[in-house]
Amino acid sequence: MFDALLHALWMAFAMGWEILWPLILGFALSGVVQAVVSHREMSRLLPDDSPRSIAIALGLGAASSSCSYAAVALARSLFRKGADFTAAMAFEMASTNLVAELSIILIVLMGWQFMGAEVIGALFMVAILVFLFRMFLRPELVREARAQAEKGIAGRMEGHAEMDMSIEGGCIWRRITSPRGFTAISHYFVMDWASVWIDIAGGLLIAGALAAWVPNEFWQTFFLVDHPLLARVWGPLVGPLVAVISFVCSVGNIPLAAVLWNGGISFGGVIAFIFADLIVLPILDIYRKYYGWRMAAFLFVTFYVAMTGGALVVEGIFGVLGLTPSERTARVIETTITWNYTTWLNIAFLLLAGVLGRRFLRTGGPGMLRMMNAPAASHKHEH
Predict the structure, then answer these.
(1) CA-to-CA distance for 40 and 299, rounded, in angstroms?
(2) What's the DSSP call for residue 169?
(3) How many separate domains does the chain show?
(4) Disulfide check for 125: which of 78, 287, 295, 310 has CB 3.0–4.6 Å away?
(5) Separation of alpha carbons 23 and 140, rounded Å
(6) Whose CA is closest to 185, among 42, 326, 58, 356?
(7) In a domain, 339, yes or no
(8) Which H or E run contains 47?
(9) What is the span of the domain harbouring residue 292?
(10) Residues near 121 by Cβ (< 8 Å), separated by ≥ 6?
(11) Is residue 235 situated within a structural domain?
Protein backbone atom coordinates (compact mmCIF):
# COMPACT_ATOMS: atom_id res chain seq x y z
CA MET A 1 0.00 0.00 0.00
CA PHE A 2 2.78 2.44 0.93
CA ASP A 3 4.75 1.66 -2.25
CA ALA A 4 1.63 2.18 -4.38
CA LEU A 5 0.95 5.53 -2.72
CA LEU A 6 4.57 6.59 -3.16
CA HIS A 7 4.42 5.60 -6.84
CA ALA A 8 1.29 7.71 -7.40
CA LEU A 9 2.82 10.72 -5.63
CA TRP A 10 6.00 10.41 -7.67
CA MET A 11 3.97 10.26 -10.89
CA ALA A 12 2.10 13.39 -9.83
CA PHE A 13 5.35 15.19 -9.00
CA ALA A 14 6.94 14.13 -12.31
CA MET A 15 3.98 15.47 -14.28
CA GLY A 16 4.08 18.69 -12.27
CA TRP A 17 7.79 19.06 -13.01
CA GLU A 18 7.11 18.54 -16.72
CA ILE A 19 4.52 21.34 -16.91
CA LEU A 20 6.09 23.79 -14.43
CA TRP A 21 7.81 26.10 -16.92
CA PRO A 22 4.84 26.15 -19.34
CA LEU A 23 2.59 27.11 -16.42
CA ILE A 24 4.84 29.97 -15.33
CA LEU A 25 5.23 31.19 -18.92
CA GLY A 26 1.49 30.95 -19.55
CA PHE A 27 0.53 32.84 -16.41
CA ALA A 28 3.16 35.50 -17.10
CA LEU A 29 1.77 36.04 -20.61
CA SER A 30 -1.76 36.07 -19.20
CA GLY A 31 -0.68 38.71 -16.67
CA VAL A 32 0.75 40.87 -19.46
CA VAL A 33 -2.47 40.65 -21.48
CA GLN A 34 -4.71 41.36 -18.50
CA ALA A 35 -2.54 44.35 -17.57
CA VAL A 36 -3.34 46.07 -20.89
CA VAL A 37 -6.97 44.91 -21.39
CA SER A 38 -9.52 46.79 -19.28
CA HIS A 39 -12.65 45.24 -17.77
CA ARG A 40 -14.29 48.64 -17.75
CA GLU A 41 -15.81 48.52 -21.21
CA MET A 42 -16.53 44.80 -21.43
CA SER A 43 -20.25 45.01 -20.69
CA ARG A 44 -20.73 47.81 -23.19
CA LEU A 45 -19.04 45.73 -25.88
CA LEU A 46 -21.39 42.75 -25.42
CA PRO A 47 -24.92 44.15 -25.96
CA ASP A 48 -26.36 41.23 -27.95
CA ASP A 49 -25.64 37.82 -29.47
CA SER A 50 -24.63 39.15 -32.89
CA PRO A 51 -21.54 37.67 -34.58
CA ARG A 52 -19.65 40.87 -33.74
CA SER A 53 -20.49 40.65 -30.03
CA ILE A 54 -19.65 36.94 -29.90
CA ALA A 55 -16.30 37.59 -31.62
CA ILE A 56 -15.52 40.33 -29.09
CA ALA A 57 -16.54 37.99 -26.26
CA LEU A 58 -14.09 35.38 -27.56
CA GLY A 59 -11.29 37.93 -27.72
CA LEU A 60 -11.99 39.27 -24.25
CA GLY A 61 -12.23 35.75 -22.86
CA ALA A 62 -8.90 34.77 -24.40
CA ALA A 63 -7.34 37.83 -22.71
CA SER A 64 -8.65 36.96 -19.25
CA SER A 65 -7.62 34.59 -16.47
CA SER A 66 -7.87 30.85 -17.14
CA CYS A 67 -9.40 30.17 -13.72
CA SER A 68 -12.80 28.58 -14.32
CA TYR A 69 -14.28 29.99 -11.13
CA ALA A 70 -13.08 33.51 -11.93
CA ALA A 71 -14.46 33.17 -15.47
CA VAL A 72 -17.87 32.12 -14.17
CA ALA A 73 -17.91 34.96 -11.64
CA LEU A 74 -16.85 37.55 -14.22
CA ALA A 75 -19.47 36.32 -16.70
CA ARG A 76 -22.18 36.92 -14.09
CA SER A 77 -20.73 40.34 -13.36
CA LEU A 78 -20.90 41.24 -17.06
CA PHE A 79 -24.48 39.94 -17.24
CA ARG A 80 -25.52 42.01 -14.22
CA LYS A 81 -23.99 45.11 -15.80
CA GLY A 82 -26.05 44.71 -18.97
CA ALA A 83 -24.16 42.30 -21.20
CA ASP A 84 -26.18 39.85 -23.26
CA PHE A 85 -26.46 36.46 -21.55
CA THR A 86 -25.34 34.50 -24.62
CA ALA A 87 -22.32 36.75 -25.12
CA ALA A 88 -21.43 36.39 -21.42
CA MET A 89 -21.48 32.58 -21.74
CA ALA A 90 -19.32 32.78 -24.90
CA PHE A 91 -16.85 34.90 -22.92
CA GLU A 92 -16.87 32.27 -20.18
CA MET A 93 -16.08 29.47 -22.61
CA ALA A 94 -13.28 31.43 -24.29
CA SER A 95 -11.66 32.32 -20.96
CA THR A 96 -11.06 28.65 -20.15
CA ASN A 97 -10.36 27.29 -23.65
CA LEU A 98 -8.53 30.00 -25.64
CA VAL A 99 -6.03 31.32 -23.08
CA ALA A 100 -2.27 31.19 -23.63
CA GLU A 101 -1.36 28.99 -20.66
CA LEU A 102 -3.70 26.20 -21.79
CA SER A 103 -2.24 26.16 -25.32
CA ILE A 104 1.36 26.07 -24.06
CA ILE A 105 0.71 23.18 -21.67
CA LEU A 106 -1.14 21.21 -24.34
CA ILE A 107 1.79 21.59 -26.75
CA VAL A 108 4.38 20.53 -24.16
CA LEU A 109 2.44 17.69 -22.54
CA MET A 110 0.40 16.29 -25.43
CA GLY A 111 1.42 17.83 -28.76
CA TRP A 112 0.49 20.62 -31.15
CA GLN A 113 -2.42 18.64 -32.60
CA PHE A 114 -4.27 18.83 -29.29
CA MET A 115 -3.63 22.56 -29.03
CA GLY A 116 -4.96 23.09 -32.57
CA ALA A 117 -7.98 20.90 -31.92
CA GLU A 118 -8.70 22.76 -28.67
CA VAL A 119 -8.74 26.14 -30.43
CA ILE A 120 -10.72 25.01 -33.48
CA GLY A 121 -13.08 22.94 -31.38
CA ALA A 122 -13.70 25.85 -29.01
CA LEU A 123 -14.83 28.02 -31.92
CA PHE A 124 -17.24 25.34 -33.10
CA MET A 125 -18.40 24.77 -29.53
CA VAL A 126 -19.30 28.43 -29.09
CA ALA A 127 -21.06 28.47 -32.48
CA ILE A 128 -23.15 25.47 -31.44
CA LEU A 129 -23.91 27.07 -28.08
CA VAL A 130 -25.09 30.31 -29.71
CA PHE A 131 -27.35 28.28 -32.04
CA LEU A 132 -28.82 26.32 -29.10
CA PHE A 133 -29.44 29.52 -27.12
CA ARG A 134 -31.22 31.13 -30.07
CA MET A 135 -33.38 28.05 -30.53
CA PHE A 136 -34.25 27.17 -26.95
CA LEU A 137 -33.39 30.03 -24.53
CA ARG A 138 -36.65 31.79 -23.68
CA PRO A 139 -36.80 35.44 -22.53
CA GLU A 140 -38.63 34.49 -19.36
CA LEU A 141 -35.79 32.14 -18.36
CA VAL A 142 -33.27 34.95 -18.91
CA ARG A 143 -35.40 37.31 -16.79
CA GLU A 144 -35.57 34.70 -14.06
CA ALA A 145 -31.80 34.22 -14.22
CA ARG A 146 -31.20 37.98 -14.09
CA ALA A 147 -33.43 38.32 -11.02
CA GLN A 148 -31.44 35.55 -9.31
CA ALA A 149 -28.13 37.09 -10.40
CA GLU A 150 -29.11 40.45 -8.90
CA LYS A 151 -29.30 38.82 -5.48
CA GLY A 152 -25.49 38.68 -5.56
CA ILE A 153 -25.19 35.26 -3.93
CA ALA A 154 -21.50 34.49 -3.48
CA GLY A 155 -19.77 31.76 -5.43
CA ARG A 156 -15.98 31.59 -5.69
CA MET A 157 -13.37 34.11 -6.81
CA GLU A 158 -15.83 37.00 -6.69
CA GLY A 159 -13.17 39.52 -5.71
CA HIS A 160 -10.69 38.21 -8.27
CA ALA A 161 -13.25 38.58 -11.05
CA GLU A 162 -13.98 42.20 -10.10
CA MET A 163 -10.39 43.41 -9.81
CA ASP A 164 -9.32 45.57 -12.73
CA MET A 165 -5.65 46.56 -12.65
CA SER A 166 -5.25 47.31 -16.35
CA ILE A 167 -3.08 50.24 -17.44
CA GLU A 168 -4.50 52.78 -19.86
CA GLY A 169 -2.83 55.44 -22.01
CA GLY A 170 0.23 55.22 -24.22
CA CYS A 171 1.38 52.37 -26.45
CA ILE A 172 1.13 48.77 -25.28
CA TRP A 173 4.90 48.37 -24.85
CA ARG A 174 5.10 51.48 -22.66
CA ARG A 175 2.20 50.25 -20.53
CA ILE A 176 3.85 46.86 -20.05
CA THR A 177 7.30 48.22 -19.16
CA SER A 178 6.14 51.04 -16.90
CA PRO A 179 6.43 50.56 -13.11
CA ARG A 180 2.64 50.43 -12.81
CA GLY A 181 2.49 47.91 -15.64
CA PHE A 182 5.12 45.70 -14.03
CA THR A 183 3.22 45.84 -10.76
CA ALA A 184 -0.08 44.93 -12.43
CA ILE A 185 1.55 42.00 -14.24
CA SER A 186 3.03 40.70 -10.98
CA HIS A 187 -0.32 40.96 -9.20
CA TYR A 188 -2.22 39.17 -11.96
CA PHE A 189 0.50 36.50 -12.12
CA VAL A 190 0.38 35.67 -8.41
CA MET A 191 -3.40 35.90 -8.11
CA ASP A 192 -3.94 33.66 -11.12
CA TRP A 193 -1.65 31.10 -9.52
CA ALA A 194 -3.50 31.44 -6.22
CA SER A 195 -6.85 30.94 -7.96
CA VAL A 196 -5.97 27.68 -9.71
CA TRP A 197 -3.29 25.98 -7.61
CA ILE A 198 -5.87 23.74 -5.92
CA ASP A 199 -7.18 22.57 -9.29
CA ILE A 200 -3.65 22.04 -10.63
CA ALA A 201 -2.59 20.07 -7.54
CA GLY A 202 -5.83 18.09 -7.55
CA GLY A 203 -5.48 17.30 -11.24
CA LEU A 204 -1.89 16.14 -10.79
CA LEU A 205 -2.77 13.93 -7.81
CA ILE A 206 -5.74 12.34 -9.59
CA ALA A 207 -3.73 11.88 -12.78
CA GLY A 208 -0.82 10.39 -10.82
CA ALA A 209 -3.12 7.94 -9.05
CA LEU A 210 -4.84 6.88 -12.27
CA ALA A 211 -1.54 6.52 -14.16
CA ALA A 212 -0.02 4.46 -11.35
CA TRP A 213 -2.97 2.33 -10.27
CA VAL A 214 -5.39 1.89 -13.17
CA PRO A 215 -4.19 -0.54 -15.85
CA ASN A 216 -4.51 0.48 -19.49
CA GLU A 217 -6.70 -2.58 -20.09
CA PHE A 218 -9.48 -0.93 -18.06
CA TRP A 219 -9.36 2.29 -20.08
CA GLN A 220 -9.17 0.40 -23.35
CA THR A 221 -12.31 -1.53 -22.46
CA PHE A 222 -14.16 1.54 -21.17
CA PHE A 223 -13.29 3.64 -24.23
CA LEU A 224 -14.10 0.81 -26.70
CA VAL A 225 -10.63 0.71 -28.24
CA ASP A 226 -11.45 -2.55 -30.05
CA HIS A 227 -14.28 -0.78 -31.94
CA PRO A 228 -12.54 2.20 -33.60
CA LEU A 229 -15.57 3.70 -35.36
CA LEU A 230 -17.79 3.45 -32.29
CA ALA A 231 -14.96 4.77 -30.09
CA ARG A 232 -14.83 8.01 -32.11
CA VAL A 233 -18.42 8.73 -31.12
CA TRP A 234 -18.28 7.21 -27.63
CA GLY A 235 -15.25 9.28 -26.54
CA PRO A 236 -16.86 12.73 -27.02
CA LEU A 237 -20.04 11.48 -25.35
CA VAL A 238 -18.40 10.19 -22.17
CA GLY A 239 -15.44 12.60 -22.00
CA PRO A 240 -17.49 15.45 -20.47
CA LEU A 241 -19.17 13.05 -18.03
CA VAL A 242 -15.78 11.87 -16.76
CA ALA A 243 -14.86 15.53 -16.27
CA VAL A 244 -18.08 16.27 -14.37
CA ILE A 245 -17.25 13.79 -11.62
CA SER A 246 -13.51 14.56 -11.52
CA PHE A 247 -14.07 17.97 -9.83
CA VAL A 248 -10.93 19.26 -11.61
CA CYS A 249 -11.17 22.35 -13.80
CA SER A 250 -9.04 25.05 -15.41
CA VAL A 251 -5.57 23.94 -16.59
CA GLY A 252 -5.56 21.29 -13.84
CA ASN A 253 -7.43 18.86 -16.06
CA ILE A 254 -4.67 18.62 -18.71
CA PRO A 255 -2.56 16.00 -16.85
CA LEU A 256 -5.68 13.88 -16.42
CA ALA A 257 -6.50 14.34 -20.10
CA ALA A 258 -3.01 13.02 -20.93
CA VAL A 259 -3.64 9.92 -18.81
CA LEU A 260 -6.97 9.30 -20.54
CA TRP A 261 -5.34 9.71 -23.97
CA ASN A 262 -2.62 7.21 -23.15
CA GLY A 263 -5.32 4.93 -21.80
CA GLY A 264 -7.27 4.82 -25.06
CA ILE A 265 -9.88 7.58 -25.20
CA SER A 266 -10.47 8.93 -28.70
CA PHE A 267 -8.94 12.19 -29.94
CA GLY A 268 -12.32 13.92 -29.82
CA GLY A 269 -12.96 12.43 -26.39
CA VAL A 270 -9.85 14.16 -25.01
CA ILE A 271 -11.00 17.50 -26.41
CA ALA A 272 -14.51 17.04 -24.99
CA PHE A 273 -13.01 16.21 -21.59
CA ILE A 274 -10.90 19.39 -21.62
CA PHE A 275 -13.91 21.49 -22.70
CA ALA A 276 -15.99 20.21 -19.79
CA ASP A 277 -14.23 22.14 -17.02
CA LEU A 278 -17.24 24.49 -17.01
CA ILE A 279 -19.72 21.75 -16.04
CA VAL A 280 -17.87 20.05 -13.18
CA LEU A 281 -20.04 19.54 -10.10
CA PRO A 282 -18.74 22.52 -8.04
CA ILE A 283 -19.36 24.91 -10.94
CA LEU A 284 -22.83 23.48 -11.59
CA ASP A 285 -23.63 24.33 -7.97
CA ILE A 286 -22.38 27.90 -8.58
CA TYR A 287 -24.68 28.18 -11.61
CA ARG A 288 -27.54 27.20 -9.29
CA LYS A 289 -26.60 29.99 -6.87
CA TYR A 290 -26.03 32.55 -9.63
CA TYR A 291 -28.97 31.88 -11.93
CA GLY A 292 -31.35 29.40 -10.26
CA TRP A 293 -32.08 25.72 -10.76
CA ARG A 294 -33.79 26.03 -14.15
CA MET A 295 -30.98 27.98 -15.77
CA ALA A 296 -28.35 25.74 -14.18
CA ALA A 297 -30.03 22.70 -15.75
CA PHE A 298 -30.33 24.53 -19.08
CA LEU A 299 -26.64 25.45 -19.01
CA PHE A 300 -25.61 21.89 -18.21
CA VAL A 301 -27.59 20.41 -21.11
CA THR A 302 -26.64 23.04 -23.69
CA PHE A 303 -22.98 23.15 -22.61
CA TYR A 304 -22.79 19.35 -22.78
CA VAL A 305 -24.30 19.26 -26.28
CA ALA A 306 -22.01 22.08 -27.46
CA MET A 307 -18.91 20.45 -25.97
CA THR A 308 -19.75 17.06 -27.45
CA GLY A 309 -20.62 18.61 -30.81
CA GLY A 310 -17.44 20.68 -30.98
CA ALA A 311 -15.34 17.61 -30.12
CA LEU A 312 -17.07 15.48 -32.76
CA VAL A 313 -16.40 18.18 -35.36
CA VAL A 314 -12.65 18.29 -34.65
CA GLU A 315 -12.56 14.49 -34.52
CA GLY A 316 -13.92 14.49 -38.07
CA ILE A 317 -11.78 17.38 -39.38
CA PHE A 318 -8.50 16.07 -37.99
CA GLY A 319 -9.35 12.53 -39.11
CA VAL A 320 -10.05 13.60 -42.68
CA LEU A 321 -6.86 15.69 -42.81
CA GLY A 322 -4.80 12.88 -41.29
CA LEU A 323 -3.74 15.02 -38.33
CA THR A 324 -4.95 12.75 -35.53
CA PRO A 325 -1.90 11.53 -33.56
CA SER A 326 -1.19 7.88 -34.26
CA GLU A 327 0.81 7.24 -31.08
CA ARG A 328 -0.42 7.59 -27.52
CA THR A 329 2.69 9.04 -25.95
CA ALA A 330 1.54 11.99 -23.87
CA ARG A 331 4.27 12.89 -21.36
CA VAL A 332 2.79 11.53 -18.15
CA ILE A 333 5.39 8.94 -17.18
CA GLU A 334 8.80 10.26 -16.21
CA THR A 335 10.75 7.81 -14.07
CA THR A 336 13.65 10.18 -13.53
CA ILE A 337 14.33 13.90 -13.48
CA THR A 338 17.58 14.70 -15.25
CA TRP A 339 19.55 17.76 -16.33
CA ASN A 340 17.67 18.14 -19.60
CA TYR A 341 16.06 21.16 -21.24
CA THR A 342 12.99 20.83 -18.98
CA THR A 343 15.10 21.23 -15.84
CA TRP A 344 16.95 24.27 -17.20
CA LEU A 345 13.72 25.90 -18.36
CA ASN A 346 12.12 25.24 -14.98
CA ILE A 347 15.03 26.94 -13.22
CA ALA A 348 14.90 29.94 -15.57
CA PHE A 349 11.17 30.42 -15.20
CA LEU A 350 11.28 29.86 -11.43
CA LEU A 351 13.67 32.83 -11.35
CA LEU A 352 11.11 34.83 -13.34
CA ALA A 353 8.39 33.75 -10.91
CA GLY A 354 10.63 34.88 -8.06
CA VAL A 355 11.06 38.34 -9.59
CA LEU A 356 7.30 38.73 -10.10
CA GLY A 357 6.57 37.35 -6.64
CA ARG A 358 8.98 39.83 -5.04
CA ARG A 359 7.31 42.71 -6.86
CA PHE A 360 3.92 41.40 -5.71
CA LEU A 361 4.99 41.32 -2.07
CA ARG A 362 6.56 44.80 -2.18
CA THR A 363 3.50 46.50 -3.76
CA GLY A 364 0.60 45.55 -1.49
CA GLY A 365 -0.14 42.20 -3.10
CA PRO A 366 -0.94 40.17 0.05
CA GLY A 367 -3.78 42.53 0.96
CA MET A 368 -5.32 42.08 -2.47
CA LEU A 369 -4.87 38.33 -2.24
CA ARG A 370 -7.07 38.28 0.84
CA MET A 371 -9.87 39.90 -1.17
CA MET A 372 -9.89 37.32 -3.96
CA ASN A 373 -12.70 35.25 -2.49
CA ALA A 374 -14.51 38.19 -0.89
CA PRO A 375 -17.91 39.15 -2.34
CA ALA A 376 -17.51 41.78 -5.03
CA ALA A 377 -19.68 44.29 -3.18
CA SER A 378 -17.57 44.07 0.01
CA HIS A 379 -14.67 46.08 -1.39
CA LYS A 380 -13.80 48.68 -3.97
CA HIS A 381 -10.48 48.29 -5.70
CA GLU A 382 -8.69 50.95 -7.66
CA HIS A 383 -5.15 50.20 -8.80
Answers:
(1) 26
(2) S
(3) 1
(4) 310
(5) 42
(6) 356
(7) yes
(8) none
(9) 10-378
(10) 271, 275, 310, 311, 313, 314
(11) yes
